[in-house]
Amino acid sequence: MNGKHLLNYLPAYRGNEFIIKKNQNTDDIINSILNAHVKHKKDYSNISSFFIGSTPRQTCKNIWKFLKDNVKYRIETEDRQTIKTPAAIIATGTTTGSDCKNYSLFTAGILQDLNKKGLTNIPFCFRFSSYKLFSDIPEHVFVVAYPGTDHEIWIDAVLRDFDYKKDYTYKIDKKPMLVKIAGIGAVKKETLLKKGTKVVLKVAASPARTAFLLLVGLNFANLAVKLDAADKKDSAGLKIWWERLGGQISKLLKQIERGRTKKKLLGFDNMIGDPATATAVATATPILVAVGTFLKSVGIDPEALKQIAADAANKKAKQVVQNIASKVDKKLLLENKEVAEVESTDKKMNYLPIILGGGLLLYFVSRKK
After folding, report:
1. Confidence at 22, pLDDT banded by 50, 70, 90
2. Residue 267 burial by CB count (10 A; 0-12/13-18/19+): exposed, middle or buried?
């Protein structure tokens, strides 16, 4: 992951500067940091999913490493203290760089958004610290995950090592307010049922996404090539579309990169002899319908994707899937094991009746439009 790529998902950095307050004191700086954390939360929402790790500690380290690799450290003078947007932090990363305030803002912005979306549950605080004897005036700030516990994780990109605990003489912890927004998993079942055709994407999202990612990596129906073109035309739109389905954009981009140089794998009728791919197509049916609509919205011809999805949902496809259910080729899943959302074959097959029925319903609804 590099800063230049993340800038595609953020408002353009124009180099504008604003004076927050002249002759600021420590309280002014602390308040400015807390206010900026709230002000720029929407920007961090556009990039937070790139930092999700397999564990909370790995997520914290991903943020630390990005700052360490992409934003050089610069100490600011007392008469010029800056508060930057995430785009400014990244855009100036290799030139003027940033100080501990902006390192902390970036770290907290990512963690706050991941928590808000329900993708992580990592409590954190801004820790303002002093290193001078007999001084209670903070001179440094960094982010601490799980503050006040025996398992604190210190995220300070100023230091050479991740989670290095440099002793201080005084500290003040400030916890930002968190307003949690319910994610897909928290939506009531009654609400989903009222949405009709969308229920399949909510009920069986994980196996459907996993199957779709596998198909992208194989360049099935030229999916990887078309999604690569969509990313170049409207990277923010692609990210929003995928995350609305509950996916992580970093995983989709990884599969696009894998599949875009491969020869196009033909449609459903030409791969009946490949049980693993046939199963993946049937499982991914609702997303295949949705991606056709998305590609068309950004000016890319979806070709036969909707027809392929319909074929996968018809009686013939359903029978094929049932016949091969016990013979699914696990090798395909193993070869794509870095796709974090892969479910066990048995669990995935349990979703097939729901997915097939929902995919067929989605197809007929879309055909009427």
Report:
1. low
2. middle
Please give the Cα distance from 103 to 80 (Å, whole number): 17
Cα angle, residue 288 at apex, residues 213 and 52 outer, rounded to 5°: 35
Domains and CATH numbers, the chain: 3-174 (3.10.620), 184-368 (no CATH)
User: Cα separations (Å) of 94 from 6, 88, 132, 240, 353?
Assistant: 14, 11, 31, 28, 52
Q: At what angle do helices 352-368 and 275-283 cross, to 10 degrees?
A: 60
Position 281: which residue type?
A: V
The pair of three-digit structure tokens given for residue 326, joined into one six-digit string: 């016990």
Name the strand (E) or helix (H) holding 90: helix 86-91
The span from the CA of 357 to the CA of 267, in Å, is: 20
- The DSSP 8-state label assigned to residue 132 in this structure reads S
- DSSP structure string for 185-248: GGS-HHHHHHTGGGHHHHHTHHHHHHHHHHHHHHTBTTHHHHHHHHHHH-HHHHHHHHHHTT--
What pLDDT shows up at residue 350? 41
DSSP one-letter string for 4-58: HHHGGGSPPP--------SS--HHHHHHHHHHHHHHTHHHHHTTGGGG--SSHHH
Per-residue pLDDT averaged across 199-203, rounded?
34
Residue range 270-299, pLDDT digits in tens:
444 456 667 777 777 778 877 887 888 888
Q: What is the pLDDT of residues 218-251, one digit of tens each?
A: 888 888 999 999 998 888 889 888 887 788 899 8
Quote the pTM value: 0.55
